[in-house]
Amino acid sequence: MMDNPIPPAPVEVSWFSALCDDDYEFLGAPDPALLSSWEHCRAIALAAEEHGFDNLLLPSGYALGIDGLAFAAGLAPMLKRLKLLLAVRCGETWPAQLARQIATLDQMLGGRLTLNIISSDLPGESLASGPRYARTIEVMHILRSLLNGESLDLQGEFYRLSIEPPRIRTVSGTCPPLYFGGLSPDALEAAARGCDVYLQWPDTMDKVMAVKADVDARARKHGRRLRHGYRVHVIVRETESEARAAAERLLSKLDDEAGAAIRAKSLDATSAGVRRQAQLRETAQQDGYVEEHLWTGIGRARSGCGAAIIGDPDQVLAKLEAYRAIGMEAFILSGYPHAHEADLFGRYVLPRLHHAPLVHPAQ
To answer: For 180-209, how does the pLDDT look when each residue is reduced to its tens digit (9 = 90+)?
Structure first.
């Protein structure tokens, strides 16, 4: 009699709420009905919970859309099980006060808050990569210490403070998991030293594996083990031809000048990760595919995550399972328009993915 096969480990499957004016029916053709607002982004979030996603990324951009922390606080009482992945742009708030806000929000969510640490420049300021990521490491250390209930005496390069933790604590009494992404050597080192879940943007399978191996080796030098996540768009339809047609329709009103303007809006438009997404587009085939079912056309009209998994339900599922096989434990997905694509993915693919919220070991 054969032993029962061991089921694959569950993954965390997250969707995306377009807080940064990043929702379109046609890329490059803004629709006032899809601009970020409380009503529109709330509808995306509630749909994600209804479809059974585990988590929801709340992105952040100084010049774009609405504020993530305020949005999360308003949304929290409406959710029953969905976690929120709140993007925090380092340096835009005082870390000790941010820790208190995070603890309050986590209580409002019943312990379901996670944090996406963004190593961004301050609006109107520009730091070189090294100092900017050094500041990020300090911010992660401050948040982790205070949210773990520890006294802090830090004499760093950017923050000098001796402080007790705030009285208010998270539901678990510990810091929520810290998600973080970045591709430069400074970013990889910051990830190895400070985050819990290292996120990659879309890339070829061999590149994804190489970056994972690099950051894992760096983390081991600090006595740490990271989880890994993958941020990518999806376009799923009943047939592959329908999915490809949907991708072509998405770009049907875009011209190169409008796409360049959209990409330039991001405060992170010159980062190593963004440059790599541009390289993917340049090396893709004429139809935009850089490898099977991975299409780079979306990157023509957005900065950051610039590729989509495209195909029928079986093909999209197989692509995600291939990433899981190389160690991806969390997926952060999105599609255009976000509510519509969440519905399609939620019906065609999500029920077939063995998924559950990540369990994060104490750091």
So the answer is: 999 999 999 999 999 999 999 999 999 999
Whether the CB-CB separation of 224 and 363 falls below 8 Å is answered with yes
d(CA 302, CA 291): 20
Q: Per residue in 25-52, pLDDT tens?
A: 999 888 999 999 999 999 999 999 999 9
The CA distances from residue 325 to 10, 203, 215, 228, 356, in Å, are 12, 15, 18, 12, 16
Please give the span between the terminal C-alpha atoms of the chain, in angstroms, as a whole number.
Answer: 42
Fold of 12-352: TIM Barrel (3.20.20)
